[in-house]
């Protein structure tokens, strides 16, 4: 069986698809004949080669969503002549658009759930494009089966979930049955009362392995029911037929608890659906006296995707049958007030993280990633395993110390903002205290009355205070600005916004979990923040643990007033609203407010947190806190993508550059310490 499908996605991306108002002939889509095992050439005369030029329509707001199935329902007309199409309101693809900008044009590419005769395919394609902005791929049934049940289910899914191509879910269910058996044994009070309704979707694949697992499940159910059943009572109800949404909702709304013990999953929506049902049912019955409390209890495997996001859930390692049995007992024994509190947590997450949220978040990530894509130049840097390709702005260049020094000399009100670790202090240095040379330079710079000099660091105030005690005029912003002090004579100001630290009780256990599993890692507790360090761990394991922990923390802290950031070998959780950018803004504002608007800004840092300082500079110019005539030297340490325009290679170059400025500074205002050093 042959099929004619539109193939050229790049054409679509460029906007080379028919416009509805064009005459019919021009609207014709380019197609290929699809025959199993044969890759055919397009049947059109036109040249389909892909141009390497930047697409002319690249700035148009169009998004192409490619999926297995289009979000449309196709039904044969009653007279059997052609098709009727309607939107599939339950399709996630359709809901995705709620998170995208309204003016965004959305084009769907995917297959239909029905087999369309090749003679009808042109007409159907045209209709779907005109009316639904859908581009169908007509896959002959045998190709579709190989693609979906073979390639997707047997190769891609197991590959992405580190599984052998067996049925994981039937992986995930026997453990649950064993846990139920254990609970009934350990807590006989539940015998005759507790029922586990196991809804198992019929396996999408076939084969001996699946049959064996299925038989094993049935045998477990039989064994448990025989051991604990009574007349009129069976502890396990095993449903292995397709269950409609309505029936599933009915089960959810009477369930005291939902247990998900999968050892791997993709996007398991069961816990979310259950939580939404409890909220919905209670709300719809709110006028009735019989309305019960909104409560949802979850026992979920720590290995599944939704586990970190539902902070009210009891998490278990499903391989630990005893612990899962205990968790199930705890869940159903819990008092209603506690169940309600947990439900509130679950619902807050579920209601704020809907499909629109995820599509918006994904779209924003994509926008951020692609912004300036065509302006940037790519460089290969590093060697061997350290080799990577980075995209840099063409204007990114090495800071010319001579040029900066000449501007420095001409300026009258200078703001100098210096990060500490990785900027004036090499990251690899064991002794973290600044050298006498650095102290001397910073003392000279801050002693010049034309200068406002700040060390802006993530470090705690005690160390910074001690290390820089000789620099009386130096300003210090510690813990990313949670503490700020304008000179050693001034008191520490505490950033007013952040006095709520209940989140530490959520973040710390997660960090401890990763610390136990990652040799060489440790937790640093600061007054306003928690930091997980992995510099001394195995480099690649530490870094992959850090990535996983970042996701984990972001999920469990989604409702807390904090941000989770990555730094040099660290993951840091700190209050929202605290950033080095805010510190920079405060300094510029204060200078402008006292009639000394900065005409020279030097801002140096190496890390992600320093990017926030660089970023604020342009908005400070547009808001007038800095002038458009201000000479700005935003400089990152190391050649890497940055918001800074300049770079220096390492802390040694930074110190040389600062030394040059110190030498060009007003010597009249040397402090006692500086005079001693000079002598
Ligand atoms: O803002 P900075 O001055 O760059 O400080 C950021 C973090 O500095 C400290 O961590 C760094 O130094 C550690 C060694 O002392 C090193 O192991 C780690 O990799 C560096 O990131 C500090 O411990 C953190 O709290 C600061 O946020």
From TrEMBL:
Highest rank taxon of the organism: Eukaryota
Signal peptide: none
One Pfam family per UniProt: Glyco_transf_20
InterPro entries in alphabetical order: Glyco_trans_20 (IPR001830), HAD-like_sf (IPR036412), HAD-SF_hydro_IIB (IPR006379), HAD_sf (IPR023214), Trehalose_PPase (IPR003337)
Gene3D superfamilies, per database record: Glycogen Phosphorylase B (3.40.50.2000), HAD superfamily/HAD-like (3.40.50.1000)
Family affiliation: In the C-terminal section; belongs to the trehalose phosphatase family. In the N-terminal section; belongs to the glycosyltransferase 20 family.
NCBIfam families recorded: HAD-SF-IIB, T6PP
Protein's name according to its UniProt entry: Trehalose-phosphatase
Organism: Hibiscus sabdariffa
């Amino acid at each position: 069986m042959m099929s004619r499908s539109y193939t050229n996605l790049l054409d679509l991306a460029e906007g080379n698809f028919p416009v509805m108002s064009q005459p019919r002939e021009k609207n014709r889509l380019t197609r290929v004949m699809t025959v199993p095992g044969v890759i055919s050439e397009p049947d059109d005369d036109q040249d389909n080669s892909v141009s390497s030029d930047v697409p002319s329509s690249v700035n148009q707001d169009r998004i192409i969503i490619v999926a297995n199935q289009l979000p449309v329902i196709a039904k044969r007309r009653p007279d059997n002549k052609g098709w009727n199409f309607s939107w599939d309101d339950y399709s996630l693809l359709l809901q995705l658009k709620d998170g995208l900008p309204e003016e965004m044009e959305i084009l769907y590419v995917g297959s239909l759930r029905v087999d369309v005769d090749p003679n009808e395919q042109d007409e159907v394609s045209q209709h779907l494009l005109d009316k639904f902005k859908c581009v169908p791929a007509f896959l002959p049934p045998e190709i579709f089966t190989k693609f979906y049940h073979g390639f997707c289910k047997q190769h891609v899914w197991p590959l992405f979930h580190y599984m052998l191509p067996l049925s994981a879910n039937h992986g995930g269910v026997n453990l649950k049955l064993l846990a139920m058996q254990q609970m009934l044994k350990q807590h006989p009070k539940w015998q005759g009362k507790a029922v586990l309704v196991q809804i198992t979707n019929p396996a999408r694949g076939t084969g001996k392995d699946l049959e064996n697992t299925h038989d094993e499940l049935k045998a477990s159910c039989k064994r448990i029911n025989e051991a604990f059943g009574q007349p009129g009572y069976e502890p396990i109800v095993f449903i292995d037929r397709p269950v409609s949404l309505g029936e599933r909702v009915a089960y959810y709304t009477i369930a005291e608890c939902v247990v998900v013990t999968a050892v791997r999953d993709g996007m398991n929506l069961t816990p979310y659906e259950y939580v939404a049902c409890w909220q919905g049912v209670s709300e719809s019955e709110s006028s009735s006296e019989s309305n019960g409390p909104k409560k949802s209890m979850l026992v979920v495997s720590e290995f599944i995707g939704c586990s970190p996001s539902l902070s009210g859930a009891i998490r278990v390692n499903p391989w630990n049958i005893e612990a899962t049995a205990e968790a199930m007992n705890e869940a159903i024994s819990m008092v209603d007030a506690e169940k309600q509190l947990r439900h509130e947590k679950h619902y807050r997450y579920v209601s704020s993280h809907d499909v629109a949220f995820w599509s918006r978040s994904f779209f924003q990530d994509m926008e951020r990633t692609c912004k300036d894509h065509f302006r940037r130049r790519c460089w290969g840097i590093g060697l061997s395993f350290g080799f990577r390709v980075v995209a840099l702005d063409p204007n990114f260049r090495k800071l010319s110390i001579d040029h900066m020094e000449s501007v420095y000399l001409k300026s009258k009100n200078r703001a100098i903002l210096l990060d500490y670790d990785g900027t004036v202090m090499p990251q690899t240095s064991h002794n973290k205290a600044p050298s006498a040379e650095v102290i001397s330079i910073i003392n000279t710079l801050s002693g010049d009355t034309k200068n406002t000099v700040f060390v802006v660091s993530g470090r705690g105030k005690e160390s910074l205070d001690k290390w820089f005690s000789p620099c009386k005029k130096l300003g210090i912003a510690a813990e990313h600005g949670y503490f700020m002090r304008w000179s050693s004579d001034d008191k520490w100001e505490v950033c007013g916004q952040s006095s709520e630290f209940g989140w530490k009780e959520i973040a710390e256990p997660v960090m401890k979990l990763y610390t136990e599993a990652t040799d060489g890692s440790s937790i640093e507790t600061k007054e306003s923040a928690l930091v997980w360090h992995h510099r001394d761990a195995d480099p690649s394991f530490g870094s992959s643990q850090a990535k996983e922990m970042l996701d984990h923390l972001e999920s469990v802290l989604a409702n807390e007033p904090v941000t989770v950031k990555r730094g040099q070998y660290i993951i840091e959780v700190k209050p929202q609203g605290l950033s080095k950018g805010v510190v920079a803004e405060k300094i510029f504002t204060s200078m402008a407010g006292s009639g000394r608007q900065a005409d020279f800004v030097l801002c140096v840092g190496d890390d992600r947190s320093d990017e926030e300082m660089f970023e604020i500079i342009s908005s400070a110019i547009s808001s007038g806190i800095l002038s458009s005539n201000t000479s700005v030297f935003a400089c990152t340490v190391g050649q890497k993508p940055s918001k800074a325009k300049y770079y220096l290679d390492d802390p040694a170059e930074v110190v040389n550059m600062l030394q040059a400025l110190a030498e060009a500074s007003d010597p009249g205002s040397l402090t006692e310490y500086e005079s001693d050093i000079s002598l």
